[in-house]
Each structure stands twice: as C-alpha cells, then as structure tokens.
UniProtKB/TrEMBL annotation:
Family designation: Belongs to the FAD-binding monooxygenase family.
Keyword DNA-binding: no
Region of interest (Disordered), ranges: 1-24
Pfam families: FMO-like (PF00743)
Organism: Cylindrodendrum hubeiense
Protein name: Flavin-containing monooxygenase
One GO MF term: flavin adenine dinucleotide binding
Keyword field: FAD, Flavoprotein, Oxidoreductase
Keyword Flavoprotein attached: yes
Amino acid sequence: MTINNNFGREPPSPKTGALDADYGHHPIHDRAQRPLQVIVIGAGPSGIAMLIELLKIPFLTIRCFEKNPDVGGTWLETRYPGAACDVASHAYQYSFCSKTDCFAPAEEIGDYFTSVAKKYGLYNHITFHSRVTSAEWDELKAQWKVMVESDTREAAPETFVADVLINAGGILNDWAWPEIDGLQDFKGHRVHTATWDSTIDLKDKTVAVIGSGASSIQVVPSIQPVAKKVDVYVRSPTYILPTVGFGFESSTFNESYSESDMQNFSTKPAYYKQFRKRIEQQMNENFSNSSKTSTEQIEARLWAENMMKKAILSPELQKKLIPSWELGCRRLTPGLPYLNAVQQPNVNVIRDGIKRILEGGIETVNDQVIEADVIICATGFITSFSSRFNIVGRYGRTLKEMWKDRGAEAYLGTAIADRDRLTGRVTAVWPGSSIHFMEMVETPRWEDFEIQYVHSNPFRFMGNGFSQRETNGADLTYYLDQMRE
Ligand SMILES: Cc1cc2nc3c(=O)[nH]c(=O)nc-3n(C[C@H](O)[C@H](O)[C@H](O)COP(=O)(O)OP(=O)(O)OC[C@H]3O[C@@H](n4cnc5c(N)ncnc54)[C@H](O)[C@@H]3O)c2cc1C
Ligand SMILES: NC(=O)c1ccc[n+]([C@@H]2O[C@H](COP(=O)([O-])OP(=O)(O)OC[C@H]3O[C@@H](n4cnc5c(N)ncnc54)[C@H](OP(=O)(O)O)[C@@H]3O)[C@@H](O)[C@H]2O)c1
C-alpha cells in the first residue's frame, strides 16, 4: 500500500504468483495466510505502547531494536538535576495502565515504563544495545531492509527485513552541542542536559547555563541553592506559568494531594478515573488560546503576563523574561520555581548574545567576559525529523534529501508520500487540538491511498467461502446479540 502519489508513474510491481497455490482453501480473513514481520525502532513510551498493541495481532513476528540498555527512552536517558514530568503524572501515563501514586522525577517515570514493559511481557521482543543505522525500501519485495549495529559486540551490522517498519525513535532523542565558537576550547567542565554527568559537583562553582527552554527551567532552580553563582543565558524568553494539571484548581496554584486523595486514588478506580478526566479536560480545554486573534488568546496572554509580573518583582527582569509574542508560539513551560530562582542574589539573567566561548568563560556580543567553572548547555536536540539514520524510500530517495529544502512533511504525521503532493503543509505541530488529531487519525482514510496488491488476486482474502466463526465453533447468531427485546 502506498500513498496515492505517483503522478501516473507506476513503480515496478512486486513479484506475485508463489502464493497462488493455496488459493481458496482457508476461511475469510485468515491472517495465517500472510504472516507479517514488523520492526519497531525504539522502546521509549511510543515503542512500548506500539508493542503492546502489536502483540494483540496474531501471526506477526515482532522485533524491536533499542540502542539503550533498557526501555524508557527520554525517561531512561534524562538525568539532569530537576528532570521531571512537568504535567501531573496522572496525565503522563497510559490510559490502560494506571499508576495512582504520584510520580514525577525522571527516574520514577522511567520505573513506570519499565514496569509496564515487564507487565506486558515486552522484554522478549526487544533487542537492546542495538542501533538501527539504515532502513531501505525494497520495491520488488515490498519490504524494508533494516541494518542494525550492536553497541556492545564487535560484530558486523546485521540485516533484518520487515513488511512494516515503525519508527518510534523519538523526536527529542538526538542531542547536540550548540554551534558556538570556541565551545571546544573551554577548560572547565562542560555538560549537556540531555547527557548529564552525574559525577559533576556544582558546589561553590560559577555555573553558566545556556538556554531558556524546559530543561533550563528545571535545572536552574535545582542547582541555584548549591552553586556559588549561576549565569543564565537567555537568547529568547518564553512564557513560564504555573503547572497545569496538578491539584484540583491547578490554574492558580499547585497544591499537594492530601492523604485522603491518595487513598481514594488507589482504592476507588471510578474516583481515580474521574480525577484523571478532570485533569485532561482542563488540558484539552485550552486549544482556542492558540488561535492568534481569538479573544481567548488575548485574555490568556494577559493572564500569563500578569502571572509572570506577579512572580517577578524587578521591572528590569520582567522586561528580560516576558515574551512580546502571542501565547503558544513557543512551548508554554510550567516553572514558578525557575522564576523564584532567577531572583535569588546568586543568579543573573543575561540577555546579551554569546559571541564565543573562551578557555575560562563566555564572551558576550557586548565584549563582556563572564567567567565560568562549568558550562551547562540546556540547548536541546536536533529536531529535523529526518531521522539520525538513513531512511531510503521509493525510487531510492532518502528522507534527508526529500526534506532538505522544505523541512519535514508527512501525511497526517504518520506516513510519508514518495513525492510532493500534499497541500497545506504543516511542520511539527498539528494545526488543531489534540482531540481533533485523535479523531482525524482514528480511522484510516483509504481514499487517500493508492493500493497496490502484493498478490495477483486482490480478492484472495475471501478464501473458501466460510467464515472463521464456522471453522472454530463460534456462535453463529452473533448478529442477534444487539436484538431489542
Ligand atoms: C527532558 C525532557 C522532558 C520531557 N518532559 C515531558 C513532559 O513532562 N510531558 C510530555 O508530554 N513530554 C515530555 N517530554 C517529551 C518526551 O520525549 C515524550 O513525552 C516521550 O518520551 C516520547 O516518547 P517516544 O517513545 O516517542 O520517544 P523517546 O522517549 O525519545 O524514545 C525513543 C527511543 O528510541 C530509541 N532510538 C532512537 N533512535 C534509535 C535507533 N536508531 N536505533 C535504536 N533505537 C533508537 C531511543 O534510544 C529511545 O529509547 C520530555 C522530553 C524531554 C527530553
Ligand atoms: N519536563 C518537561 O516537560 C520537559 C523538560 C525538558 C525538556 N522537555 C521537552 O524537550 C524539549 C526540548 O527542551 P530543551 O529545553 O532541552 O531544549 P529547547 O526547548 O530547544 O531549548 C533550547 C534553548 O537553548 C537555546 N539555544 C540553543 N542554541 C543556542 C546557542 N547557540 N546560543 C544560545 N542559546 C542557544 C535556545 O534559544 P532559542 O529559543 O533562542 O533558540 C533555547 O532557549 C522541550 O520543547 C520539551 O518538549 C520537556
């Protein structure tokens, strides 16, 4: 099956014929007639959910390759001080696997995903320390050829084939040093938030933190009490707000759950479900704020500005940290502890750009040299979407090549057309609410696809005229179950 997109040029047909021999001897929808091989790349939260669903389907051979030693993705790798989920953990768990006690630090979230993977027996299907290095579509076989390298064994890369390849490699998994002149010359300790060095001791150190994204917003309040001085280099400000989804009245405060709340969460499933629904209802209600000229945007922006003004006492610091653009142009980040930390006497917020890094510190574009013992790069990830390994699709075209000029483009964010055909290009963020997205992808729109059959007889699935029900002794009056009495 391909996206309807070949401008009248037919790709070569897959070989057919071999499967004809057993034509007509099986009941309809007999999956045993075409067992499939599926490869999942990555065992983070997405890979785990995918594997759980795949295991429900019979006649699949499922393989998951994970470069890390365990499951969890972000939550296994991220260990900077303060790393935690910044929404309520009750809204950061699978709908089908509740964890009613509070958890939020990265380690605990990691443990949650490990426990889910164990509960659903996923470990047998995951090969760890195994990095996918390329995936190439074979048009004739209608299969992917996937190269996998072991990170622990000195062995040649192995090749696997898959009828279906699912990339769950994460869009925030490919960290990189920022491109700043002289970064390599720095003689102090240099660390990136995405690959934290747990041996680093910040006590009494002068620390430069580059970046003002969610990682910086969590790391700064965690190191401020320990370090002698913290200089935070903020290239662009961002809206920093109270945490959404914590407590029952979370838009204005962040109250801890009481003992009785916790008791109710763990002993009354219906109560817990209602509680989760309230959190997510609140999160889902806010989408109209993202519309540039809406009243909701104007009101929400005013609310956010006032929130920040209330939290930041100095007008000078307010000017440095309150964005001048609409709410939602950049990720809204919960982080009142950050706003508190940057007002402490040992913290400076520096809005001057960085010219270069010297052996002993940072030189700003205003030629000011600010010394540092440690530089923390909270500068994020490569988010090109074109994947860190080579993906070669139809006609030998690589994803990197296809997306070189115009950036990432995908059909509903789920499949990639082999040629430019789509209109209304959207990059990264879905142009609707989360609910809109879920409804949009709920059922496949087969009319958007051009289907090519692997078998020469597209009606082969109809089989020998019998239903599965008739061959396995099932209820043959199932259609009366909905009968009104
Ligand atoms: C510091 C941080 C905090 C975050 N906090 C939140 C939050 O509070 N709320 C929220 O909703 N989201 C948060 N996110 C986003 C978070 O990344 C996602 O919620 C979630 O982890 C995405 O899951 P994933 O499985 O798609 O990707 P990941 O968690 O990134 O997992 C991808 C997996 O694929 C593996 N992989 C990648 N490439 C290969 C390859 N070539 N071969 C083999 N394996 C490969 C990786 O090793 C990894 O295990 C945060 C992200 C970061 C970085
Ligand atoms: N708990 C959480 O929920 C949580 C925590 C951490 C991360 N995350 C997720 O991870 C994503 C990435 O977060 P992140 O904070 O790691 O990265 P980020 O949001 O991409 O922020 C990177 C920061 O580094 C700055 N920067 C990058 N290169 C620079 C340079 N050369 N000079 C000066 N400044 C530079 C950026 O400035 P500009 O803005 O000017 O480019 C930005 O402020 C987030 O969007 C979020 O989805 C979530």
